[in-house]
Amino acid sequence: MTDEIISIRKLENTSPHFTVYELLTDRLNHINDHIIIYKVVNNQGQSYLEDDGYTLNELKMYGIAVNGSVAERIDELLADHYVYRGVQQDNLYTGICSEDEIGDEITSFLDVIESIYKEFLE
Predict the structure, then answer these.
(1) Contact criterion met (CB below 8 Å) for 92 and 78
(2) Integer-rounded Cα radius of gyration of the chain
(3) E strand or H helix at 42, and its extent?
């Protein structure tokens, strides 16, 4: 998939319409924990990546509200990498990508997560 992945684990007890894989990466967050992302594959074999809300929830844990100018800046960072933010959820996610594109998508997704940590938590 990509050299940035340390391990892949298929998650059990998820929706019957999706297969979800937890990807442990070699990238570190602001407290030097490995960043975990998820690859979600639908029944048609299409996939996207998401962070399950971890990135924005980290900001909230440090007292940073994701609204106003903070939300605008996050959206700017996301747009640079074609990553989206859930409206009523804290999830960050990519668009649908093919298996040929997944390596580049992982790199880009991790880049944007790191940029959010650097912008607000370092």
Answers:
(1) yes
(2) 14
(3) strand 34-42
